[in-house]
Design a protein that fits this description.
Number of helices: 10
Largest sheet: 8 strands, mixed
Number of strands: 23
Strand content: 15-25%
Bound molecules: iron/sulfur cluster
Helix content: 10-25%
Structural class: alpha/beta
Radius of gyration: 20 Å
Distance between the termini: 7 Å
Strand order of the largest sheet: 10-11-13-14-15-16-17-18
Length: 400
């Protein structure tokens, strides 16, 4: 990191390469609100909230900002074919692709979400969830309208399934995103909440400016993107949290209107590009919690990505179009974690269960607790320059 940043709710001694942090207790109610509510209740408009900011602005409904996309092929009849994600939408003149944020204007294909995010929030990096990236720091999180999946369990469907005309957005240049991140004491910019690759052109430019200012760029993505734009993204990306939503094509087709195979290719490409990688599997009762499916997924991760890939099993809460299902039983999450550990994955977490020991990081070599978390707050860290403070095992991640 190029600059010294404000301390964030912890006492750090980075000069020693070791961090000890004091507890910031939150209630169970607060934890559930943070974990289960997605954007709900956390949509603080930072641009209007900064009292000293001359450019403070109110969000505008239907704000559209365009940029010509480099990711399309012109077809003979004035139509275009989008090359950004595996849908490869063929879009006639005047129409938009499946994600609703790209439009064919006279045979050229434009992003409608370049510089008009509808969400801009300061989050704990643990909320993404990244457990191996600068623990205890904050990420300025941004999102626009639109998504290339239609998940029936989407936490943020109010913006992911909306068009740019239906949401309130801010006019924020890439440079302004970075300025705000620095003002707010963020250590990273997170592209999240919806599928960020639908605003890839914006993400690339924000990413370049943010990297120049010493910030990390991190993404939470469904991984449904074509190889060329993904490799372009990797030039500015530091860490990726990819949803591996289930381990069958049937699951992806029926619940996400998507496909598994391209997601697996994305994971392999990210590993090849040496991007720090974590995976989240939201366990939905009766949909993707079959132990055989879980085992197959874990073996695939071990074989293709390596046993040090952090895996988060996250608890489902009923919402959007799956309100009739119950929350995931904790025992199901514990069983999944046991399966993952038994096949050799070394960093396996249980998410969205307050106080569960699976929320903490343990050293796979000596078994000692390395990072203790209370909600999104860090209670203790026992790492020396990315190694276990007790046995010296190297722990994958970005630690300073
Ligand atoms: S990014 Fe959008 S327009 Fe392009 S192929 Fe994917 S869904 Fe279609």
């Amino acid at each position: 990191m190029g600059k010294k940043r404000p301390k964030l709710g912890c006492e750090e001694d980075m000069a020693q390469g070791r961090t000890m942090m004091k507890v910031h207790k939150i209630t169970k109610r607060e934890f559930l609100k943070l974990c289960g509510a997605g954007l709900g209740g956390l949509c603080m408009p930072l641009l209007t909230g900064l009292k000293k900011t001359a450019q403070a602005q109110r969000p505008q409904k239907g704000l559209i900002k365009t940029k010509l996309s480099p990711y399309f092929t012109a077809l003979e009849d004035g139509a275009v074919q989008c090359e950004l994600c595996p849908r490869q939408c063929r879009v006639p003149k005047g129409k938009r692709g499946y994600c609703g944020v790209r439009e064919n204007r006279d045979g050229k294909y434009y992003s409608l979400v370049y510089g008009n995010p509808c969400a801009l929030h300061l989050d704990p990096i643990e909320k993404k969830p990244f457990f191996h990236v600068l623990p205890g720091t904050r990420a300025l999180s941004i999102a626009t309208a639109g998504c290339n999946f239609h998940c029936k369990f989407c936490q943020n469907w109010e913006i992911s399934q909306a068009s740019p005309e239906e949401v309130y957005s801010y006019d924020v240049s890439p440079a302004l995103v970075t300025t705000r991140a620095e003002e707010m004491g963020a250590h990273s910019v997170a592209y999240t909440y919806v599928e960020p690759t639908v605003f890839l052109e914006y993400m690339l430019d924000v990413g370049m400016v943010a990297r120049g200012a010493g910030l990390l760029n991190v993404i939470h993505s469904n991984g449904f993107v074509n190889e060329k734009p993904l490799r372009d993204l990797c030039k500015v990306l530091d860490a990726a949290q990819i949803d591996l939503k289930g381990f069958s094509e049937d699951f992806y087709r029926e619940l996400c209107s998507g496909s598994l195979a391209p997601v697996l290719e994305t994971l392999k490409t990210l590993r090849e590009e040496n991007i720090h990688l974590e995976i989240t599997n939201l366990m939905i009762p009766t949909k993707n919690d079959d132990p055989g499916m879980v085992k197959d997924m874990c073996v695939w991760i071990r074989e293709e990505l390596g046993p040090d890939t952090p895996l988060h099993f996250s608890r489902f809460y009923p919402l959007y179009k799956l309100t009739k299902l119950p929350p995931t039983p904790v025992s199901v999450l514990e069983k999944a974690r046991a399966i993952a550990l038994s096949v050799g994955l070394r960093y396996v977490y249980i998410g969205n269960v307050p106080g569960h020991e699976g929320w903490n990081t343990f050293c796979p070599e000596c078994g000692r607790m390395l990072i203790q978390r209370t909600g999104y707050m860090i209670r203790e860290i026992h790492l020396n320059h990315g190694r276990c403070a007790f046995c010296g095992n190297a722990v994958p991640g970005i630690w300073s």
